[in-house]
Specification:
441 residues, alpha+beta, Creatine Amidinohydrolase, Chain A, domain 1, Creatine Amidinohydrolase, 2 domains, six-stranded mixed β-sheet, three-stranded antiparallel β-sheet, 17% strand, binds glycine, binds manganese (II) ion
């Protein structure tokens, strides 16, 4: 889809900000994504590279953006697929260079085949080449080759870039802080994804298969022109103890819990929600005991997402509460502080408590600056997702806890007024879940 005037404006202002960051001595090269083969001559549904999408809004495969601050002939140069009447009949419309300038705001646009020849002109005289090496083997070679070519003729006056700078410290710092319009999209993605989780709670029952529940969720995304932001995890019983379980092909059993981690992507921004609930609609005493610990960790960790607070705090707080809970349940013995120092809780809690969220489910942005967790800033979005996973047969653990895997994951915006939970549309209180599953709400 072509961008709206408002989107065009936002993309242009992002490019302006990026060019300000890289300065007059810099040049940035940002490749888009290519199609990926699924089977022989058919492809996975195309998804644009997030960095490229963020700066250009250009939706087609095989394109490259070059930002050259202050360049007389134009600072925003796009290389795109050529128009091709035959291919467009088979595969769909192409903007071509003219469309890239007309509809996407490029100052200059060329066919991708010209990229290599035009690159030396775009790079020469610039000191810093902002390009993430190691992501695209082919373009790495083209870029390093071009730099070498300029260097070879440098005695005639053209200066080659002296360093390659990854996009972490420029573009990714921009993407980490979400604008009002990005937050609006993310909020909507979270609302619809929360509805999908509610539908899943209604659908689940003994004998229903995990894939049927996944279908319920994904159909709801489809109704809102969304797709999965990542592979849905729908794990009944001990499948919940496999952190990235995506087989989703087992029947649900009476007495088991069901863990669902699924989020829909809307206009390039994804939600990331996990809920865990009983297949038969009623928590057992053992399930409830573990659930309440995870829920407490989730709620207390969310409170830590405050402007200026350390972004390492949610994990510290969640780890402490989970470890205290494990001691209360007698699954660990000792003082929580000592157990954490020795990493004993990792047997039951082996992942982090959250990650940045945005265009990518594990979004860009550094977690540490100079070795220390960075402070939260308004506009950052983080997941809060504590969990406990008790593998079946764990020695020293009473059998009633075996196979219990629980995670509760919310998406939270850091604001000047405190944490804003985007995923409150799906219940996480035990009584509210049970009421929803009874059909009482
Ligand atoms: N759904 C992946 C994650 O929660 O990080
Ligand atoms: Mn998740
Ligand atoms: Mn997550």
């Amino acid at each position: 889809m072509k961008p709206t005037p408002r989107q065009l404006k936002e993309h242009a202002s992002r490019r302006a900000q990026m060019m300000q960051r890289i300065g007059k001595r810099g040049v940035a090269v940002i490749p888009g994504a290519s199609e990926v083969i699924r089977a022989r001559d058919t492809h996975y549904k195309f998804r644009q590279d997030s960095d490229f999408q963020y700066l250009t809004g250009f939706p087609e495969p095989d394109a490259i953006a070059v930002l050259v601050p202050g360049r007389k002939q134009g600072a925003f140069v796009l290389f795109v697929r050529p128009r091709d009447a035959e291919r467009e009949i088979w595969d769909g419309r192409r903007a071509g260079p003219d469309g890239a300038m007309r509809d996407y705001g490029a100052d200059q646009a060329f066919e991708l085949a010209e990229f290599e020849d035009r690159l030396p002109e775009l790079l020469s005289g610039r000191d810093h080449l902002h390009y993430t090496l190691g992501e695209h083997a082919h373009w790495d070679e083209v870029l390093t080759g071009s730099v070498r070519q300029i260097r070879e003729v440098s005695r005639r006056g053209a200066a080659a870039p002296v360093d390659f700078i990854a996009l972490e410290t420029t573009l990714h710092e921009m993407r980490l802080i979400k604008s009002a319009s990005e937050l609006k999209i993310l909020q909507r993605a979270c609302e619809i994804s929360a509805e999908a989780h509610c539908l899943a709670m209604r659908k689940a029952a003994p004998g229903v298969n995990e894939w049927q529940v996944a279908a319920e969720i994904e159909a709801h995304f489809g109704r809102h022109n969304m797709q999965c932001g990542y592979g849905s995890i729908v794990g009944g019983g001990e499948n919940a103890c496999i952190l990235h379980y995506i087989e989703n092909d087992a029947p649900l059993k009476d007495g088991d819990l069901l863990l669902i981690d699924a989020g829909g992507e809307l206009d390039g921004y994804t939600a990331d929600i996990t809920r865990t609930f009983p297949v038969n609609g009623k928590f057992s005493a053992a399930q409830q005991a573990v659930y309440e610990i995870v829920l407490e960790a989730n709620k207390r960790a969310i409170k830590e997402l405050k402007v200026g607070a350390s972004s390492g705090r949610p994990h510290e707080v969640a780890t402490r509460i989970l470890t205290e809970g494990l001691v209360d349940l007698k699954l660990l013995k000792g003082k929580p502080k000592d157990l954490i120092a020795q990493g004993k809780q990792r047997q039951f809690y082996m992942h982090g408590t959250g990650h940045w969220l945005g265009m990518d489910v594990h979004d860009v942005g550094r977690y540490k600056i100079e070795g220390k967790p960075r402070p939260f800033e308004a506009g950052m979005v983080m997941t809060v997702e504590p969990g406990l996973y008790i593998a079946p047969g764990t020695p020293g653990v009473p059998e009633k806890y075996w196979g219990i895997g629980i995670r509760i994951e919310d998406d939270v915006v850091v604001t000047a007024n405190g944490p804003q939970v985007l995923t409150a549309g799906v219940p996480k209180e035990r009584r509210e879940i049970e009421a929803l599953m009874r059909g009482a709400v």
